[in-house]
Every structure is written in structure tokens, then in C-alpha cells.
Amino acid sequence: MCGIVAYVGSQDAAPILLEGLQRLEYRGYDSAGLAVVNAKSLRTRKVKGRVADLAAVVPARFKGGSGIGHTRWATHGVPSDVNAHPHLDQEQRIAVVHNGIIENADELRRRLEADGIVFESETDSEVLSHLIGSTVKETDTLEEAVRRALKSVVGTYGIAVVDSHRPGEIVVARNGSPIVLGIGEKEMFAASDVAALIRYTRQVVHLEDGELAVLKADGFNTFTSDARETAKEPFTVDWEAGHYDNGGYEHYLLKEISEQPDTVARTLRGRLDDRFHIAHLGGLNMDPRESRSFRRVKIIGCGSAYYSGQIGAQLIEELARIPADAEPASEFRYRSPVVEADTLYIAISQSGETYDTLAAVQELKRKGGRVLGIVNTVGSAIARECDGGVYLHAGPEVSVASTKAFTSTAVAFALIALHLGRVRDLSPADGRRICDGLRKLPEQIKEILTQEEHIRTLAMKYADAPGMMFVGRVRGYPVAREGAQKLKEISYVHAEAYPASELKHGPLALISPELPTVAIVPDDELLDKNLTTLGEIRAREGRILMVGHRTAEAADDCIVVPKNETELDPILLTIPLQIFAYHAAVALGRDVDRPRNLAKSVTVE
Ligand code: G6P
Q: What single DSSP character describes residue 220?
């Protein structure tokens, strides 16, 4: 959500913090700030606005070899200069940046105010700087002060703390919000996301919930919340700094849409077995006997991850004939779910840090559920929490709206479904059919991408509609939901998705020339039924944009995509809808990569 960066070493911290914050801007971006420590003095700057606005107010001579920085996505208190982080204690000795939500902030605030402390901001985070500030005088180390202060805190946090009395030292702590350490040459980094570190180092260490770390230029130590030292193995991130560049595209979103032939190929690489027509997924950590033992599959995720889970459920039911369904992780975790030993749970997350999904996985684990993860970010919290899983290898996704992670997740589900199917009743011939279909995907995605100009023209034609209806049946329904999601999140055009079969049970009342419909109409056994629905819309003077494998008279406009195996078609049908949403958003002058009110990775409840 918000972004955290910290640096300690022989260089000046400020330029490194600003560069890191820029890399994190996609996570949260209504204000930004930093604090550096130089020869026992603390200097801070914070502003409402973007990182560029912060950079503009940081003086050229802003010296200091250690410091912390933050980009904020407001939860408590409006975006403003005072509510921006870092927050200081009364004596202006301690500076803290915080990601997460302090649930007992009001109570702590009242207690601190009764002791004479005057608060500057409306944030929950400011209690942390005052708590640490009032403890640090009684302790020998900053780490001890942070640990003691955190004992009275209820809620989630990733924090970084500096103390002007201890230049050259930073303390970070994690509980529910990610903190990654980066190991450099006589310098140390910390951040909420590797994106901020990757320019400087690829050697990283992830903190676990409840862990603290003390960073100095020459290394780091990690501790549990009861002060026991922990041993951490660094690992090498295989993403490179270049992966975070926009590669000459006007927007990350278009870059990420265009990367899909490669990203889908990477998700497939080395995973298809031509001898037995099965998928090899070593990370599942299951032998065939175990793979056969599940009687049900439950899939959880948030936002686009949830919609890709709906495609996954369909694939698993069709190919493995195991009852499967998807549910938003945010709902699942709160309804005291019944957890069964013979159900396989699958959690989906691009970032691997979405708090609702992580909390749902933790609830499942607590009840003894078997959970697999489909995750893009290696070593992320959800990946670590799961019993096994499939990494997408799609490379970092920077734009807030998910595209390449969505298609790669659907492909990962096809692999899981193939695997579960082939240890059950899916015939070798069907296994081969699916393997061949999967191999065709990258070339077919390239073919769809060549239609960008046609889709752009259509997007411009429909972009001024006050709203759009998206409909699809069975396999087409999750595609319609994701299409509506893409349109609403980046173009702010109201978009509603409905099963085509449900249209006449209510939403048909909305159909008029002002509300165009995007209809997902694959060439499958439901084609005739779908064409009948188009006729019903047409009879109410509704305009129709059809996405499918042929043109149809009932539709005003058509986007025709290459045909694959029926089960895999939803993956391809999604792509024109991404391009459509992108160009609609551009036509409407929206901030495509950073849509209002949204964040890439929602690490709070
Ligand atoms: C946020 C983003 C969505 C994303 C969802 C799940 O809401 O705006 O684009 O689909 O989080 O993210 P995850 O990283 O768990 O896939």
C-alpha cells in the first residue's frame, strides 16, 4: 500500500531514498516524505503530492548517511503535508515511517496525550514515534525501545525508525506489512518492496511477522519480538532493475499487456511433459496419491486475482472433474469458513502481500487446511505461508491494474487442472490436446496484439458511454467480470458484469442505446444460447460489441480472436478487453497506471 525505503551506508541517503520512493510510487501516492540523520541531527521533508513534489523541496545539500522515506496512501486522515510520514516524537529525536493500521491508535493517543504529548497529525502512525520517543530514553538500544513500544501496539505494521542520537543505525520491524532487507557493499537497504532495492542490490532477506532488524552499514541482525536473535539466509532476486522500466512504452499497462506472449511462455516453460501429457509442477509438493485425494477445490484471491480464480475453478472442474469454486479472500476470511481435510485450497496473489489473502491463508493453516499459492513474487509472505504452489515468473507488474499476472495465473490454473486431471480420469489424448493448446497461446496472443489499432478505434467509439454491461456464459462469465473490472478501474466508466443467462432476470431493464454491452461469445456449445441473448439486447436497441471467434449480425462491432481449445479460450478472450480498457482510459485522459483511489498492493484490511 504505502511504500517504505530505508538506507544506511557511506553515501548520502536522500538521493537513494528518493529514487527508491519513485520506484514504489505505484503502491500508494497521495503524499511522500523522508528523514535523514547527520551528525546527531534529524532533517525531514514531507509534502502532499507525488515523489517529484518531494524531490523539489529536498535541498541539494541534504546530507546524512542514514535515512528513511515513505509514500503514503491515506487511511487515517486526509492527504496533507502534516499527515505525510515520517512522524517525529516530541523532542524531534525519533522519526518513523509506517505501513499498515494501528487498531488501538485512539487509546494509545489518549494515553500519550494524558502524559502531555501534543500530536501534530490525524494519523494512527504518529503514536509510534511518540511511543518509541518516550521509551528510547530508558533503553540502551534503539532496537530495545522499538520492541518495547511495539508491545503495546495492536494492528499491522511495517516500520522503519531512525534516532538522531544514533546516526548510522536503522531499526525496522514487520507485522502484517512487508519489509525486505537489501544487502549491499558496506551499505544496507530496507523497503516494503524489492522494487525499491533492485537498482542497488539483488541480495535480499524477508522479515517474518513479529521480527525486527537492526541495520548498520556493515550488516544486519534480526530478532524475534522477545529479543532472541534469528538466523536469516539471504536469497538472490531474479528480477532485474530493467524489468521495472517502462521499456519505451507510454504506460506500464501497455508494456505489460504487450509482454504477455513472453510472460505466458515463461509460466509454461519446462512444465509440460510430452511423454505423459501432464504438467510438472514440482512446487506443489504432492505425490500422485495426494493429488488424487482431494474431493473439492476452493480458490481465494482479491480483485483480478479472484476473477482469474473463477477461470481456474472452471478449468479444474472441466479437466479434473473436481467440484471447484472461487471466492473473494476478503469475504472468506471473515465468515469462519468450514475447512475440510479433503479440500485443496488455492490462494492467488500477484504481489504475494495482499493482506486479506494472507490473512485467509493464515486462517486456513490454523485450521489445518492444505493451501497452495499461485504467486508472482518469489519469497513473498503468501508464498512463504503456503504449503506449496506455482510461481508465475511473469516478472514485476508495476501498473495498478493487473494484466500479465492475470493471464499467467489462468495459465498456471490450466497446468494445475491438467495435473489433477491426468492423475484422475483425463485421457492421454485430452492431456495432449491441452498441452498443444497451451503451447499455442503465446503466438495467438501475438496475433491479438496486432489488432490493437482496431480495438483502439472501438474503445474511442464506446468510451463516452455513461456505463457498459459485460456479459458472458459459463467460461465467458469470468472473462466478462475481468473485462468490467479493467474498464472501471482505469477509465472510471461504470461497468457491470452479468452472466448472460441472468440478463432477463433483471438487468435487461437497463438495456438502452445509452448502455452498450460487451458480449463474450466463444465458439463453444453455448454459442446459440449466446446469440439468442444478443438478439434480446438488440431488440431493446442496445448496442453490442461482441468478443468471440466469429462475427455476428446482431452485433454492432466485433473483435475476433484466434480459437484455441474450448477450455483455454477464456485466456485469449481476456486480452482484447485489456486493450479496450487501456485505450478507453487513454481516450478519457485518465492516469492509466495509477488510477485514483487504488493501490497496487493492498497490505491493509
Ligand atoms: C489490488 C489491485 C488489483 C489486484 C488486487 C489483488 O486491489 O488494485 O489490481 O488484482 O489488489 O492483488 P494481488 O497482488 O494479491 O494479486
A: E
